[in-house]
Every structure is written in structure tokens, then in C-alpha cells.
């Protein structure tokens, strides 16, 4: 059904901003697997954390769900009664395919797939909230407001999982670690042209924070504890507990 990511393989004269449109949705599993080191580990750990932290009579949120990889991992991990999963993405191309994907692997836990901006939805009775490589696309000035809303809608003892591309404040470290990521992309078959065209299209669209900024924001939003549980190069994942 889905294909190989060749979106940036030919020279593009009018390189626009990166968008989660039909073309991207069509090749997304290949694109994310070849671009994000540790992606599969993170997805399976979202399953394990869901198993540990989901509470009966609660909701699990997958914010920026794309094709629903994290939703599927969460759905498989649910053991408690009266649990509902809410998967949200503002890309119609993603939401349409996500719904088909979920229907193809039917499960007993109800999943509502919603096409909306995660900054506009209501969050309530949440025991697990996942932002798997989504916060980096939300305008920086809206990120704290979003985290405060999530914290407000969570149950005590609930977990927020935030996976992101990171920026490093020391220029030498930023250079060294982003070069390791570029080598990872080269090793996965991306050409210099593909790498540089995609990088330009992501400029001002994917805006990474430092790990310290993430931890400070969790504290500012009211979370009682947070830590980085995974890192590979400039990609990683944090947990925060209410
Ligand atoms: N404001 C927003 N509101 C809703 N959706 C948004 C917003 N901004 C971006 N998105 C959506 O967030 C997703 C980010 S991809 C997530 C991967 C997935 N979590 C995975 O586990 O496979 C990560 C990446 O491509 O690096 C896209 O589907 C956007 O449409
Ligand atoms: O490809 C990159 O360089 C990235 O930073 C990761 C990524 C993966 C999928 C969509 C957008 C960005």
C-alpha cells in the first residue's frame, strides 16, 4: 500500500514549506523509519509505558497521530476496563489513512480519530498522553499553553510521553550530533540532494527545543517529575508525571 520516500530525490525549483499532505502520508512509514533514529524502540516503549500507566475509566491521547503507529501500540497494551483512545491530527491525509489502518487491525478498545488542531481540542480524564514527534511542529509560543492544558486534563499519576528532535545550545555539540544524524540518513539511502532539500523545507516548520527547555516547560506546566528516558543523536523521548 505505502511506498518508498523519494519526495526530495529530484531537484525542486520552488521548494515550499514541508506539509503533511497526501504525498507525505503515502510514504510516511518509510520516511519516519529512515529519518528518525530509535523510532521503532520508542513506539514499542509507548506500549510498555501505556501498560504500566493506563488507569481504568480513563482516556489515552495520541496527539499528532499521523498513521496511528503509537495508537496501535497503546491499543494493544490496554488491560483495564472503560478505556477510550483519542487520536488527533490536523492533516486530513493522515487522519483518513489512520482510520483505515486502525480498521484493518480491529481491536476491542474504542478509538476516536479526530481531524483537529491539538491546540484546540479538549483534554479530560487522561491517564496517558503521547506527543510522539508532534510538539516540534507547534509554534514555540504555544507549547507551554498546550502542556498546561494537557496537565490540567490529566489524572493524578498519569504520564505524558514527549518524543522530539533536539537542539543543543553548544554549537560544537550541535554540529557533531547533527552530523551523526546526517550519517544515519545517508546510511539509510538518502542522497545529499534529498537531505538538503528536506532540511530547507523543514526550516521554521520543525523547530527543536533543547532537552533543558523541555524539562523546564514540564515543571512550568505543573508536572511533578520528568526525565529523558531515551536518546539517539538529536532525537529522543521524555516522560513527565502528574
Ligand atoms: N497543531 C497540530 N495539531 C494536530 N496535529 C499536528 C499539529 N502539528 C503537527 N501535527 C501532526 O503531527 C504529525 C507529526 S509526525 C508524528 C508521528 C506519529 N506521532 C507517530 O508516532 O508515527 C512526526 C514527524 O513527521 O516528524 C503530523 O502527522 C502532523 O500532521
Ligand atoms: O528527516 C529529518 O531530518 C527529520 O528531522 C525528521 C522528520 C521525519 C519525518 C518528517 C519530518 C521530519
What would you say this structure looks like, in words?
Keywords: S-adenosyl-L-methionine, Transferase. This protein is α/β, with parallel strands linked by helices. Helices cover 43% and strands 21% of the residues. It is built from eight helices and seven strands. It has helices at 22-35, 39-53, 69-77, 92-104, 140-152, 171-187, 192-202, 211-221, and strands at residues 58-63, 83-89, 111-115, 126-132, 154-165, 225-232, 235-241. It has a seven-stranded mixed sheet, with helices on both faces. β4 (126-132), α5 and β5 (154-165) form a beta-alpha-beta unit. α2 packs parallel to α3 (69-77) and α5 packs across α8 (211-221). The longest helix is centred in the C-terminal third of the chain and has 17 residues, at 171-187. The mean pLDDT is 96. The chain binds the ligand Nc1ncnc2c1ncn2[C@@H]1O[C@H](C[S@+](CC[C@H]([NH3+])C(=O)[O-])CC(=O)[O-])[C@@H](O)[C@H]1O and 3-phenylpyruvic acid.
DSSP strand tally: 7
How many helices in DSSP terms? 8
Shape: globular
Helix content percent band: 40-55%
The CA-CA distance between the termini, in Å, is 40 Å
Largest sheet: 7 strands, mixed
Strand order of the largest sheet: 3-2-1-4-5-7-6
Catalytic activity: prephenate + S-adenosyl-L-methionine = carboxy-S-adenosyl-L-methionine + 3-phenylpyruvate + H2O
EC number: 2.1.3.-
Keywords: S-adenosyl-L-methionine, Transferase
Organism: Agarivorans aestuarii
